[in-house]
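Summarise what follows for lecture notes:
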Amino acid sequence: MSELHRTGAHDVDAVVLDIEGTTSATGFVVDVLYPYARERFGELLAARGEEPEVARAVAQVREEIGEPGADAARVEKVLGEWVDADRKATPLKTLQGILWAEGFARGDLVSHFYPDVIPVLRRWHADGVRLFVYSSGSVAAQRAWFAHSPEGDLLGLVSGLHDTENAGPKQDADSYRTIAASTGVAPGRLLFLSDRPGELDAARAAGLGAVGVRRAGEPYADADFGDHPQASAFSEITLAARSSS
């Protein structure tokens, strides 16, 4: 990872983490979490369609497909199509997040992290670096993901969670400006880690530092990261020493 070593240590106050392909295997999400939610969409819509969060997501689905009268069966079909297409649609992520959070809470699910990630996150946190998450998965899903890791509850390491609803699309520079404003950290003091070049470009356009995480076997492992610094593991990312003052 010569690009990373050439840029040296990153002098920042906070790190913003992508999840899929960065902290965790995309395959786990696709092969475990997607089917788990998909099997339960129908039951959720039928039994809990009047709950405010579910009703709002259903209304968003209807708006996106231009069918205000779509019934639960039609909405379920659309959700399945979006899963197949890997659409990052906010209402899909909301409903998945509800089901995943409940699955984690019941013990049906345990999240996945690459082995190099948790020790580094703990070290950065201990060193006073604030950690934030920005994922296309809903905030509810992110919270459940970090609370039910193979090494227990990691939420204490995280200062804030961001998704496409409270921040915006991940390839839009304004989303990263929103995150910087909400965290109170100047963009130039934030470092964003992701496996997707388009997201790195958007973060850089907003003034953030950015490192591409290139993991073997991930969908973007062979992508062109341009002149972004790169790492194949979190242990290769060096942050500047923190002041003790």
Observations:
- The chain has a mean pLDDT of 94.
- The CA atoms of residues 101 and 144 lie 5 Å apart.
- The chain is about 45% helix and 10% strand.
- The beta strands are 14-17, 130-134, 158-162, 190-194, 209-213, 230-231.
